[in-house]
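Structure, all two chains, one model.
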Amino acid sequence: MARPLDMDDLYRLRHSAAHVLAQAVSHLFPETKMTIGPPTEDGFYYDFDRDTPFTPTDLEALEAEMARGIGRSEVFECREVTRDEALTLFADNPYKVELIGDIPEGDRITIYTNGDFTDLCRGPHAGNSGDIKAFRLLHTAGAYWRGSEKNKMLQRIYGTAFQSREDLDAYLTRLEEAKKRDHRRLGRELGLFMISPLVGAGLPLWLPRGAVLRETLSDFMRDQQRKRGYLPVITPHLAKRELYEISGHWQAYRENLYPSMHGEHEELVMKPVNCPFHIQIYASERRSYRDLPVRYAEFGTVYRWEQSGELGGLTRVRGFTQDDSHIFCRPDQLVSEFHGVVDLIMLVFKRLKLEYRARVGLRDPENPSKYVGGDDVWEQSQTALIQAVNELQMPHEVAVGEAAIYGPKLDFLVRDAIGREWQLGTVQVDYVLPERFGLEYTGEDGQPHRPVMIHRAPFGSLERFVGVLIEHFAGAFPLWLAPVQAVIIPIADRHAEYAESVRTKLSDAGLRVQVDRRPERMQAKIRDAQLQKVPYMLVVGDKEAAAEAVAVRSRDRGDLGAIALTQFLANAVDEMEM
RNA sequence: GCCGACGUAGCUCAGCUGGCAGAGCAGCGGUUUCGUAAACCGCCGGUCGUCGGUUCGAGUCCGACCGUCGGCUCCA
């Protein structure tokens, strides 16, 4: 076995590959201004300032030019320079001048040279360009200078590099595999959802099989919530603008709200969040300390204006449904309620065998305009959240600036098949909205007290959650989730009647089954069921009809032979519990 | 929103430098009644994303818009 790949070595290699790319650009497109070119998790990129964008043909020419640079095995030489020297060297490049200006006084300023190309760079680099054994330029993209849309858009070239040809091939194969499980592709192939341009971008339509999948998840959650003392509520999709002015969403998220509609005397907006509605329900009665906690749950569909370039599939949409709930509790109940919510979220991940990590999101003190609520209230809620998380003894990281507008939160991030991480479950502690809406309960002392709110959504959005599940399972859902759990395949027309009786028995037992009675051969029906990733195919012919049996073929394990129908049903029920 | 690529039948795709719109699968009709991943024959199917322009002539060239994809920015 080859020695384990040292990430630092790979980073150096990719960093050097970025320099070789910049060198190639300087040869073929001398008018181009270099900016920055770091290594990334999967490769590297380099941003160039250039009037005309790079074409796919340009990329081919650059790959050839890079190969020449690598062939020369040029050493990466590091040299420390003075600030003045650096400014002189890069006098004609405003980007480098800006970077030099940002290097703190007293820090070393270094430049790296490979052959005829010199770049301002902190390093480190590979020994020489010949170490880059395998590389590929992947695609181009626009990217703002320093990531701000106020700055000029630069031309970015993405590439990747490895220490061997095999590693590169393995990476490219992985990209291909990831493409095959893309939820947008599988969504169409498996008949789960669609996007109609006439309905609108970012507004997915759920097809029957997708709707069954989603409903199965919703039913699971409803069942858990019922067991945990949640109460269902249902609220409309529109509300007066004033509601969101009080909550603060109108001010803080105006650019993400759909333009308002005019009623007779009021302005109505599509709801971007469910919480103010649930707050109104809480506020509709006098509440005693004995009534708390109150847990309102709703699969609430919300609408947020997203920039068109951001839309795609089920994971980035303009309308989506949250498995939302708002818990109103006394301060002394906060920690136990919080723990109950985390328990529910972990149950979801366990049921689906998903790997996750937890992240505490705190507010960014540098950017107070992103939030509502005073410092003291934030201090209180952040302290409460951190305490609750610590008591769980759950590994987590802390991210400053990742709070919600009204409070800190605990997010759960799930990694999907392509390695992307998705924020799925979330719990938020909120002292702000109860204050803004003047919520109260009467305490033991007969005095009014302010409740605390917990916002939580274990799935996050059903759309995004299903999108991630499609990719995670590559469409081959576990039995309990599969939209069609079994297809019954009669071998010849004379077996249709028995097939129908099998369907009735299994349907009555709660399974989602279909009979494939097309005038096709059994082989064709099996093939179609496999491609549709149906967990079980039940072949029925003369032998099965005579014995009240089914010949079971598993999607994953192949032909399992004939067993009694009652036995199949018992096995299936067991499997769904797992 | 910004940068780039792309948009041809329900799906996957071909159509070279402008000169009569193609294939496979799906669908429909027929034949076949079959034992674990595609039976056979035939037929239908397209305002080449939309609108405008250049040209004797546009799927092909140009522009705008709509949409999709890869990024950037944003994400309560």
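The two ends of chain A are 37 Å apart (CA to CA).
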